[in-house]
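User: Hey, quick favor. My workstation is busy. Could you predict this chain's structure for me?
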Amino acid sequence: MINGATITGTAKDATGIYATDGTATNNGTISMTAEKAKGLVTDKAGTTTGTIINNGTVSVTGTESVGAAALDGNYKLLATGSISASGLSGITLYSGGTTGGTINATGGTIDATDGAINVYSDKGTINFNGATINTGASSLAFMKGGGAVNFNSPTTANIATNGTAFSIFHLLYHLYLLAQLIHHF
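Assistant: No problem, here it is.
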C-alpha cells in the first residue's frame, strides 16, 4: 500500500496506518489530533510482520499519542520524512509490544514538544543513522526501558531550554520509590 494523500484522525485511539503484513509506504501527510492517537503502527499477525516506510510527514497531538510504533514489525524513517509528537506523555518513536519491533531512522526529522518523548525503546530496537532529533521545552529526547537505542552514524540532537536529553526508566522509577519511602519518614 502506498499513501500519497492526507490522512486526518480526530477520534480517541485512531490510527493513520496499521501494518501487520507486507509493506506500507507513507508519501503523504498523516495528522492525528486526539488522545492516544497513533500515526503509524507495525505489528505482527500470526508469523508475519508488517513494515512501514515513511517518506512523508506524520504529526500526532494529544495526551499519550504515538507518532510511530514498532510493536513486532519494522519502521523506516527515510531522509525526506518527518515525524512529530506533541502533548503530555506523547511519544514520537516507540518500540514495544510483546517482543518489540525495530525502527530504523535513516535521516529525517524527529520532533517532540509540550511534554512528549522523542524516542522510547521499551522493547525492541531503535537504530539511528543520521537523523535530526528536536526536543522542545518540558519534553524528553531519549527514554530507555528494556529495549535498545543504537547510534550507528552521526545523529544530531537539539535540546531546547528546559528540555531533557536522557532518561533510563528503571533508574528513575527506583529513585521515585526511594523518594516516596523517605517522604513517609
